[in-house]
Amino acid sequence: MRKQKPSFLNEKTLLNRLLKNYALILVSLILIGMVSIGMNTYWQSMGRGKITAQEAVDTISRSINDKNLQGKTMMNGLTENQDKINNLNRYMDTSISDYLNYSYDQQLETGNYLFLPGQVKNFYTMYDNIESIIIVLNSYNDYYLSSAENKSGKKIEGTPRLNNKFYLAYPITNPVTLEVLGSFYIEFSQKDIIDSLTHLTTFDGLSAYVFSNTGYQLLTYTEQNNVLDQQLIQQKMKETSALPIQKLAENNILEHLKTTSGFDILVTISKKKVLTQVLFDLRILMLGGLVLILLLLYLLYRTFTKYSQQVDIIMGSMALVSEGDLNTRINEQETQFELKELSRGINTMLDNIEQYIADIYKLEIKQQDAHMRALQSQISPHFLYNTLEYIRMYALSEGSEELADVVYAFSTLLRNNTDQAKTTTLEKELSFCEKYVYLYQMRYPDRVAYHFEIDEALKGLVLPKFSIQPLIENYFVHGIDFSRNDNAISVKAHLIDGQVKILIRDNGKGISPQKLALIESKLKTQQIELHDSIGLQNVNERLRAYFGPTFLMTITQNESKGIAIELSFDESISQN
Predict the structure, then answer these.
(1) How far apart are CA 150 and CA 130, in angstroms?
(2) In CATH, what number is assigned to the domain containing residue 483?
(3) How do residues 56-94 score in pLDDT, each as one tens digit?
(4) Of the candidates 300, 317, 341, which is a domain's last residue?
(5) Per-residue pLDDT tens for 455-494?
């Protein structure tokens, strides 16, 4: 049977006339829009340039104020009292070993530990925009230099070089006599300012300059083709120590700000660049409008001439489905508009039907597999227990008591793992953990030590099974170093002021502060996101669900090595 063409493609119909009128309206609106946008772009570009220059000045000013505040905070942290001034003098005047002894002595006397390399190193942690720190004391020939590569810093003989770097300088004064003792310099990264200026505007001709109150050029942000303005500024600053504002304003949109702290901020945008950008945008606008008109006319023609073909594609696919071919899908790339939505809906429906069939099939397979495993579990545990007990008794008869103990410990672990009980007592849980550690001690003799301690009142405490074992297992998987002979782990359970506290400590490799902070933040939430800390996550979620909101898991680093994990909850909750 031959298909007929839709009538609106063969003759002058109302739909055909409406489509032509619709195309004429679209073309007229596009032309009017292009003219309006072009005129509006021309009149507003200069205004946008002015606003952009002001925003650039404000951005630089805020950044400098922030850096200035950071610098003052850091300087005060090193020089705010006489003890800290003495500490600086002692660092510059003695060797590092003598200075270290001095710092320890001062800590014993005053309770404050002032160690200059450590204090400066903390600044890099607090602020990520520091490049280097320089301390110059007038009484010494050496100066102190710390950089991002050597955060602890060192003393260097001579005078520091500050050329072509964003340094902010602060006088170091005696807090009592107000005598100027030296200078404190901080080199800040220019990246945040440059990134802000780069993303601030679409104009290519933006330039920015920052000068200190002494005329020192702290920042230059400009394009290579704007060398003339840069040379003019440098020349006038050398001659008169003043910026050529009027000369620059002839060819640039200009904004200038002198901050209260004495910084000169100058931002210029080339008027020539603005004009070039406007002309380029108008040219692109006209070309884009012409292409849009032609594209719309083409799409209108193609859309309605292919409408019937797209319907045939959908109907043909549905016919195949009705014949039982559920793998058939409509090619959405061959449909448009509402037909595309219809095709997507049909495909989604077919995907769901196929998924439902697969889910039902997989469920039946899982049920059969679960039934088989249940039958096997009735036989395998008893067979393994009897076999292990025979091996243990045989070892005893042969006089190998150590082997018998190992077999007994392993048999106990196996029996505990296959036991279907969901809870246990704290005494049994720690006994299970002790046997687990004992097996490692037998495997690595003279390398592992352990100690378990529990209050008498907590031996009968009921808690979920495997509440502590995963934490000990984490130590043997991630923290222990089998090349050492002093590996140790301890578990202590005490009742303190009505709270149960269980402390697991080791002297292993430990974890980084960043990862520790991440784990602590995740443990405080209800979301399961600790992909690389499954044992901690499992214990935390199970005990939180069992003991309620009073339960808390905390993880800290030990003084030397390793970590400490503390589980705490109210005694009243544990008795329920």
Answers:
(1) 12
(2) 3.30.565.10
(3) 888 888 888 888 899 889 998 888 888 888 888 889 888
(4) 300
(5) 998 988 998 888 888 888 888 888 888 888 888 899 999 9
H or E stretch at 99: helix 96-110
* Residue 127, in any domain of the structure: yes
Which of 44 and 6 is assigned the larger pLDDT? 44
Helix, strand, or coil (residue 190): coil
Range of the domain at 156: 12-300
Residue 161 belongs to some domain of the structure = yes
Laid out side by side, the sheet with 130-137 consists of: 154-157, 142-147, 130-137, 180-188, 167-173
| Measured distance CA(534)–CA(379) in Å, rounded | 31
Q: CA-CA-CA-CA torsion for 386, 392, 394, 396, nearest 10 degrees?
A: -150
In order of 502, 515, 532, the CA distances from 523 in angstroms are: 17, 12, 13
Taking the C-alpha atoms of residue 523 and residue 194, their distance in angstroms, rounded to an integer, is: 39
Burial of 209 (0-12, 13-18, 19+ CB in 10 A): buried
- Is 506:440 a contact under the CB 8 Å cutoff? no
- Helix, strand, coil share (%) of the chain residues, nearest 5: 60, 20, 25
Residue finishing a domain among 257, 282, 300: 300
